[in-house]
Write a structure and sequence with these properties.
With about 160 residues, this protein is of the alpha+beta class. It has one domain. It is about 40% helix and about 20% strand. Strands 1, 2, 3, 4 and 5 form a five-stranded antiparallel beta sheet that branches. The longest helix has 19 residues. It is globular, with a radius of gyration of 20 Å. The termini are far apart. About 20% of the residues are buried.
């Protein structure tokens, strides 16, 4: 009986330890990695998928923007998400801004350079994957989000 109670107690402790370590944290992504950052810019390597080189590069650029806006980039100046961690809620709340941002390719105005670093690698079907080094003007992006009332200015 004592052995049975000990087993239940240990099982309960283990279960609580596992569930408490599963708390919400910033989700790292393998498709975007930090390379460098200085003077209000962030350079990262992003993976994009598309039917041709141009589509794959556009996908990589959008992946990089999504990480900065909604997830944050570990080891960079922007460790936390700029806009918020609930991507769907923020996209719905600021629908007009993000439809211009992504739909009209406005995000490209914050990209200083986008350099293809690999040859196209064929994925399943006709989709292709590519790695792109992207340099983003982080300060201009943050200022634009503040001016459009997507985020609040820090300290005010």
């Amino acid at each position: 009986m004592k052995l049975y109670l000990l087993f239940i107690g240990l099982s309960l402790c283990f279960s609580l330890g596992v569930t408490s370590s599963c708390s919400y944290k910033t989700t790292p992504t393998a498709s975007v990695n930090f390379l460098a950052g200085s003077n209000g810019t962030i350079t990262m390597r992003a993976i994009g998928i598309g039917i041709n080189t141009e589509d794959a590069i556009n996908d990589a650029e959008k992946n990089a923007m999504n990480v900065i806006l909604f997830r944050g980039l570990p080891e960079s100046e922007q460790k936390l998400a700029l806009v918020g961690s609930n991507e769907l809620e923020e996209l719905e709340k600021n629908k007009a801004y993000f439809s211009k941002f992504y739909g009209a390719n406005r995000y490209k105005t914050f990209i200083m350079s986008s350099i293809n670093t690999t040859e196209l690698i064929i994925k399943k079907g006709s989709k292709k994957s590519i790695a792109v080094d992207i340099k983003i003007n982080y300060q201009a992006l943050k200022r634009d989000l503040e001016q459009n009332n997507i985020i609040r200015k820090f300290g005010f």
